[in-house]
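Repro:
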Amino acid sequence: GAFSNLHGIIFFQNLGHRSWRTPYYKLIHFPPPFKSNHPDMASHSTHFQFAIFTTILILKFSSFPTVMSATLNLDTDKQALLAIKSTFQNIRPPNPLSSWNSDQTSSPCKWVGVTCTGDGKRVVGLNLTGFLLSGSIDPHLGNLSFLNSLQLQSNQITGQIPHQITNLFRLRVLNMSFNNLQGQLPSNISNMVDLEILDLMSNRINGRLPDELSRLNKLQVLNLAQNQLYGSIPPSFGNLSSLVTINLGTNSINGPIPSQLAALQNLKHLIITINNLSGTVPPPIFNMSSLVTLALASNNLWGTFPKDIGEKLPNLLVFNFCFNKFTGTIPESLHNITKIQVIRFAHNFLEGTVPPGLEKLHNLSMYNIGYNKFVGSDTNGGLDFITSLTNSSRLAFLALDGNNFEGVIPYSIGNLSKDLSKLYMGENRFYGNIPSTVANLQGLSLLNLSDNSLSGEIPSQIGKLEKLQMLGLARNQLSGRIPTSLGDLRMLNQIDLSGNDLVGNIPTSFGNYINLLSLDLSKNKLNGSIPRATLALPGLSKILNLSNNFFSGPLPEEIGSLENVVTIDISNNHFFGNIPPSISGCKSLEALIMANNEFSGLIPRTFKDLRGLQLLDLSSNRLSGPIPKEFQQLKALQTLNLSFNDLEGIVPTELENITNLYLQGNPKLCDELNLSCAVTKTKEKVIKIVLVSVLSAVLAISIIFGTVACLMRRKSKDKPFQSRELLKGMPEMISYRELCLATQNFSSENLIGKGSFGTVYRGYLEQGTAIAVKVLNMERAGSVRSFLAECEALRNVRHRNLVKLITSCSSIDFQRKEFLALVYEFLSNGSLDSWIHKHKLHADGSGLNLIERLNIAIDVASVLDYLHNGYDVPIVHCDLKPSNIILSEEMTAKVGDFGLARLLMEGGNNQSSSITSSHVLKGSIGYLPPEYGVGRKPTTAGDVYSFGVTLMELFTGKCPTHESFSGDLNLIKWVELAYPKDMDEIMDTTLLELGSKLYYQEQEIDPTKQYDCFTDVMSVGLCCTVDSPEKRSCMKDVLLKLQMIRATLIRSPNANE
C-alpha cells in the first residue's frame, strides 16, 4: 500500500566492479516506523498537547502562507494539498493527481497518495513515489501538521526544501530521494524530533552537514548520498544512538572520520564512499561488532588494516575499501568471516600474497583485489587462492587484474562458481596456454585476459560460453588460427583479439554475431579476404578494426550492409581494386580509414550519402581522377586526407570549409583556393607561395619586435600610437569614451572576472550589442606582451569555437595613462569553470549532462586541432583550462584568453621556437605539462596535456589542484587508478544523478551506453596526459576519438529503420 516502503530503505551499495552500470542494491530492514509505544494520535498526553500548541503558534506567526482559521482541520489539509498540487506538473500523462480537486464533496482521504487518520479527520501520510512530478514543493506543505510520513521519492522535483517543513514535528518518515532538489538542509531540521527516516539521496543538496541533525535522537536512517554536501562529519553524530544506517556516499565531504561514530552501538551500515575523507580510519571503527556494511571506498584514507579485523567485525557482509591509499597486506582474519559476501580492496597499494582461508567463504559473491601490488607465482603456491575460491559457490565477480601474479593460469579455474559472471585477470604476468577448463564457467558474460604473456592457440572450447558478451584477449602472444567455434558465441557484443600473432582467415562463423557491437582484430598476421558474412553483421555499431594485417583482395560490396557502424579501419593491409560505391550504405559512419592499401580507380561519388562522416582517410593508395565535388555535401566532414595518391585536376573551392585537408603527394592536383592553376607549374607556384608566406612571417615578426621595443621605451603619451601599429589589419578600433559608456564607467556591477593580465567587464554598445571588454593591467609586468600575443594569435584565425574578437582599444584614459583593451563577443553562459565548480545551472535547475559535456569537449578539441594544424605555423594556446572556456547561449564552447599564446616554427627535433617576445612560460598550476617544469619550450603537445587535464576535470568534477590530491596522487593518477573498471568511483556526482534519465532527441539513452561513454572519454584523457610529450595523442586523433564516442552514445537503436 501507500506505506510499503517504510519498513526499509533501498540504497546504492556500490558493490560492483562496474557498479554504476550493474548496481547492486541492498534492502536494509529495521523495526516498522509506527511502533506500538508511539503516542496515540487520538489521545494527547501533556507533552503532545504542548507540541500542538507550539505548532499552532508557529503556523500563526510564520512567514509562509497559512490558512487563517480558528483551528487546523481536514479542510486546512485539503487546501494545503491543493496548493502543493498547483506547483507540481506531470511530466507524462495521465495526471496521477487528477483526483485532487477543490469540489466541496471531495475528501482528501480518498485522493491518490493520501492517507488519513482512522476517523478521517486529518491527513497523516502523503506518498507520491514515482508519479513523474516536476516543479517545486509549495510551502503550504507545512500546514499538514498531523503528517507523519512524507514520501516524494523518484520524481523530478526541483527547487529548495521549504523551511516550513520543519513545522511537521510529528513527521517520522521523510523521503525525497531521487529528485533534483537543491539548496541547503532546512536550518530548523532539529524541530522534527520524531524523525526516524531521513532519505534525501540523489539530489543537489549542498552546504555543510548541519550539526543540528545530531539532535534527532530517534533517527534510524540517515541517507544523504549523491548530493553536493561538503565539510567534515560533525563528531556530534556519535550521539545519534538509534542510527542503523548512515549513507553519505558521493558527496564532497572531507576531513577525518570522527572516532565518535564508534559509539553508535546499533549501527549496521556505514557508507561514506566517493568523498574526500582523509587520514586513517579510527581504530574503534574496526571494533564495531554490529556492522554489516562497512564501505569507505573512493576517498583519501590510508594506513593498514588491523590483523584481528575478522574477530572484531564478525557480522560483516560487505567490506569495500577500494580506491584509497591503504598499504600493508590483506588481514588473514578477514577470511575467517564465513558469512561475508563482498570484499573489495581494488586500487590501493596493498602488497604481499593473498592469505589462506578463502575456501571458508561459501557466501562470497564478489572478490575484487585488482590494481594493487599483490604477487604470487604458480611455482611457490602463490596462485593456490584461485583454487580455494572454488568453494565459493555464489561467486559472481572475480577481479585479479593489474597486479603482479605470475605463472600458468591453473586448470582449477574451471571449477569456480557456475554463477561467475565477470572474470578480470588482465594486466598481470600470466603465461602459458589459456586453460581449456575456462569453458566450464557457463555463467560468464565477461572474460578479460588481455595484457599478459599468454601463448599458444585460443582454446576452441571457449566457444561453449554461450552467455559471453565480452571477450578480451588483446595484447598477448597468442598464435595459430582463430577457432571457428568462437562463432558460436551468439550473445557476444565485443571481441578484442588485437595485438597478437594470429594467422589465417577470419572464420566465416563470425557471421553469427547478430549482437556484435565491436570487432577488433588489428595488429595480427591475418590474411585472405574479408568474409562477406562478416560484413553483414546487423548489430555492428561501434567499430570494425582490421588494420595492420595482411588482408588482400577487393573490398566486398557487402560492406554497404554495415548500416550502423561508426568506425571502419582497414588501413595498412593489401586491399586493391576500386572502392565499392556500396560504401554509401554505411549510413552511420563517422570515420572511414582506408590508408596504406592499393585501392585504385576513381573516388566514388556515393561518399556524398555518408552525411555523418567526420573523418575520411584514403591516403597512400593509387586513386586517380578528380576530387569529387560531391564532398561539399558532407557538412560534418572535418578531416579529409587524400594525400599520396594520383589525383588530378582542380581542388574544389567547396573544400575550403573542411578544417583539416591533406592533399600533398598528388603532383597533378591544382589548388584553386590559393593558386591561379596551371597543372604543369603547380609545384613551382607552391614554392613561390611558401617563399611569400615566409617573407611575410619575417616581416610580421620584425613589426612585432619593433612594436614591443617601442612600447617598452616610449612615454605614456606616445604609447597609444605604437599600440595602434600592432592592430593594423584588425577591425576598426573603438574609443575609450565608447567603452566607458558601454560599461557604465567600468562599474563593479559589470565586472565579470579577472584574468591573468587584466579585468573583464560586460558592456553594451550603442546598437545594443553585448560585449565583453578585457582591460589590461598596465602596471603588471608582461601585460603588453600578453596584449601582443593575443592580438597576433587572433588577428587572422577564425573558428566557430574561438571567442570572437570584435575590436580593440589603444588609447589613454582620463588620467592620461595608457589604456589597452580587447573587445570580444559576450557569451551569456559564462565560463566552463562556473558550471563545473560553482554549480551554475540551467533554467530548469539541471547541470551539465553527459551529452553537453561531450559536446563541450569536442568544441574545444576542434579549435585546438585548428590552431595546431590549420596553419603552416601552429599556434599554441599555453593556458587552456575551464576558466578560459566560455559557453554561448546555445552551450557552444569557445576558447579565449590568448594572453600566453605562442606561434611555433617546426624544427627537426620536434622542439618549437617562439616568435613572440615572451621569454618565460607562464600558465596555470595543474594544467601545465611536466616538461615545462624542466625548461622545455611550449609545444602543441603541451596543449594536448592541458586539454587532457581539462577533459578529466569536466567529467569528474575535480580540479587538478583539489585538496584531496597530495603526494604522488594527482587528478591524472586518480583517473588512471580507476580506469577502466571502477569509473563510477570518479564520475562527477551530477552525472551519477542524471545517469538513468538522459535523452537525445526524445530517445532515452541506456545507462550502459552512458557508462561506456564516460569510460571511453577517460581513456582519451589518459592518452593526452602521458608524461612523455612524444607519446601523447595529437589533437587530430583526440578530436576523432571524441566524435566517435559521441556518435556511439547518441545513436538511436532505430536510426536506420
